[in-house]
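ARCHIVE CARD
Drawer: 12
Card no.: 0347
Subject: one protein chain, sequence and derived structure
Cross-reference: see card 0346
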Amino acid sequence: MKEFTQPINDIVLYRYDVEVGMVNLCLNLREFVPVKETPKGWWVKEKHSVCYSYTKKRWVSKNPIHKSFCYPTKEQAIKSFVRRKEVYVDRLKHQLKMAELSTQLGPDVNKVPHGIEYCEY
């Protein structure tokens, strides 16, 4: 495994993230650089970190099949971002549905609404 004292200058990988403010969203493009190379991938750190020795390293594949933490092109990175947010929305919709069903519960446990199962432990 090759280990680099400084990041490899000609390789940059990308990841989009979003910061949620009170009234707006801020889409951030984060850049990562390899600090170690393996036969199948790289250990990467964020490019704009203050100190390379104190930031978290992540391993990424050179040829990701399905998903990766960061990507060699901005186009792949934005597609990954959109997909991550679609999955997030689906999970939140499910949680909302469960919360809405929970609000239908009343003090009479003998009249449990359709879709809710009463369990005693």
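Annotation on reverse: The helical segments are 74-103. The chain is about 25% helix and 25% strand.
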